[in-house]
Fold this protein.
Amino acid sequence: MAVRFLSASVLYLSEYILGAAKMATIHTRSVARLMMAPSVILLFAWMIVPLGMTIYFSLLRYNLLMPGTEEFTGLLNYEFFLTDPAFFDALKNTLLLVGGVLAISVIGGILMALLLDQPMFGQGIVRILVIAPFFIMPTVAALVWKNMFMNPVNGLFAWLFRLFGAQPLDWLAVAPLTSVVIIVAWQWLPFATLILLTALQSLDEEQKEAAEMDGAGPISKFIYITLPHMARAITVVVLIETIFLLSVFAEILVTTNGGPGTQSTNITYLVYTQALLQFDVGGASAGGIVAVVLANIVAIFLIRMIGKNLEA
Amino acid sequence: MGSINLRNVSKVFGEAKVIPSINLQINEGEFVVFVGPSGCGKSTLLRLIAGLEDVSDGEIVIDGQNATELPPAKRGLAMVFQSYALYPHMSVRSNIAFPLKMAGMDKGEIDRKVSDAARVLNLTDYLERKPRQLSGGQRQRVAIGRAIVRQPKAFLFDEPLSNLDAALRVNMRLEISELHQQLKTTMIYVTHDQVEAMTMADKIVVLNRGNIEQVGSPLELYCKPANLFVAGFIGSPRMNLIEGKFAEAKGAKTVGIRPEHIGLSRDSGLWEGTVTIAEHLGSDTFMHIQVQGVGTVTARASGEFWVRHGDRVYLTPDETKLYRFNEKGLAL
């Protein structure tokens, strides 16, 4: 009887302790939530307020030249923006710009990383020099390219063309989008090079030696060992660059102003012309929302396509 | 097939002479173990044979053909690395098939050879897995599989068992020995573990500071060490090396006696000493005994010998099993 009582009390006691422990975790969790709440709320508000206001403006007829005449127009702004022939040019230009810069910076970055990985004199200095373009602000970089390289009279390219007796090219007039792609790619190449170089350096030396013993030449070693090893870094470069390349603006503003016509206008620049050249806040807001949707489509597409490389 | 000859091979890294000059003959089908303390140049020597390092001077002859200038792939050797060096993004099948693919062999032939190798190494069920999904022992077997599919002239093992736990190490040791019996291919094996060397080798090469101290079968090294270094390195626990009066009485600078050749008694013997540490392993008892005028002596008793710290014991070295060395450390 006494034993029974004892075991029962032990059982009760253990349950009590376990219960207390459970309560303690619940307690800790709710405290944790409470502590996190301010930062989460702040971050959420930071995102939702501008987004909400943009959506609200996109539903208004809202022109800065006609203050006080704002009225609700439904989806009319979207209809105008999406049926504007400039929109399709801008969409095409945006994708070409992103794709072109990605191709150049990833392929060029791999080649540069392979070169910089070779032992050479003054490696540290050379690496810093290679990264330099990334530190230059977009406006400055674009102006340097516009005036010092691509200028048809004084530019370095014009001089090179004349050296071979060819007619100098007015880059920004003849091939505006290509010129912008070149400028932006120049800025992003160092970033890609840097990330890919670190990936390259983390490749296990013994793996390379094993491949060598297995009879792989330099090219097979690159294709079967180095490239798969760099897959994750390449994915990171593509994802990060895409985020920034969808919103390229300064380079276009200071070089081509989106022209000639709409030949170098991307979505970001189109939204800018709507808002600050035509003073149409409603239309620009609708454009902004379209750009957000477009960015999400691209993001989903990318994650589906290459996101599996990020899994360990 | 599979004889390797080193002639005056030396290796210099900058100022450091890692290997001054080595001559070594490895016969076909032999299991040769390079053993020595860390930094003795044993891995460097293996990498010189593999072609992963260039020799500074001398010649490497494989099967009568001068291979000194040949790239690694052309030497017909296969290597198993310490870290296994499996290709992490490839399945086990592709890992094993990789050298054959590089050799441009046709698909059917590759599949046949890979499944043969997988059967020998018990990897058939794991062929579609990635290396990270395998245990240490399985990864080791994949690395060996990648080596055997090429049917190389010789296998080179660079401390292949050092990343495995003790039990698995004993297992893999047996598996590699069995593999050698089956394939009868020359194998060169680098290790710092003298137990691996003693149990697996046909021929042991003891290296110290880039020099060969002695070459011989395991028992030759155990029974007739050429010098103090080999005497101290081979055997576990290590040989007692005694200097002073006792050695002079035997007409030598140093006298060596192995722990297993010392008779132990509680009441009478040549030396009297105090036990400082006793290790009871059940099958053996190892004792560190402080002996007046001789120093600390390690002794081994077969089975259980019940002593504790501070106990008094008497030791009698077996006169017929003494090793004598002169001032230069060479055996007399």
Remarks:
- Chain A has a mean pLDDT of 86.
- Residues 2-58 of chain A form one domain.
- Chain A has two domains: 2-58, 76-310.
